Amino acid sequence: KRLQETICLLVCITLMAFNFMQLVMHFKSENWYTILVCSLFGILVADFFSGLVHWGADTWGSIEIPVIGKAFIRPFREHHIDPTSITRHDFIETNGDNFAVTVPFLAHMAYKFVSLSPEEINKTYNWECFVFLLAIFVSLTNQFHKWSHTYFGLPKWITFLQDMHIILPKKHHRIHHVAPHETYFCITTGWLNYPLEKIGFWTFLEDVIERTTGNKPRDDDFKWAQKQN
């Protein structure tokens, strides 16, 4: 597992560096506005997916489910009991899995940069900016989450990014950690938490699933928390 995480990190960072250089080489200043919009959209999509995964793991399933119960759901249950445990994980353990998810997409982007003509790259450039920022922010979601639980020793540039709400702020994420952990699931930047809460997005999904399946949201989370107490 450790070897797999390390390899994925190295491959992913190499692909990020290569694709970034290609994006810089093909950048055209006259398209800056469209590029900015596509890049911001990539960050928003990353934030949404972080919320969707977080909501799914927090709200449904059980740690008793074979394979994914212990490997995927249990860490979310434990995180509600000991939120600062994530701060005791090193960079590889914190980010290895997320970096692995983005490798195929970054590799496909790199393949296009080396195989397509400059004219063809210009036609897909805005899309590549979207995918690149999406991959960057998906890769670093767990790191941003970790920093939101780190209360001492953070460099000033990280606290500045948190204060400017460019990445997930501490006070903002603290809202999620108030029992019963039913809101503010997005943990990349947290930009979408307020609008999704205002329209009742997660509550709507939970109502639909409960009416369809009969399963109650966070039922296992409540039971597991009571066992730990």
TrEMBL record:
TM segment ranges: 7-25, 31-53
InterPro entries: Lipid_desat, Plasmalogen_desaturase
Membrane topology: Multi-pass membrane protein
GO cellular component, one term: membrane
Keywords in alphabetical order: Membrane, Transmembrane, Transmembrane helix
Chief place of localization: membrane
The keyword Transmembrane is annotated on this UniProt entry: yes
GO molecular function: oxidoreductase activity
Keyword Cell membrane belongs to the record: no
Domain Lipid desaturase: 43-220
Subcellular location: Membrane
PANTHER family: PLASMANYLETHANOLAMINE DESATURASE 1, TRANSMEMBRANE PROTEIN 189
Similarity section: Belongs to the fatty acid desaturase CarF family.
Protein's name in the database: Lipid desaturase domain-containing protein
Organism of origin: Magallana gigas (Pacific oyster)
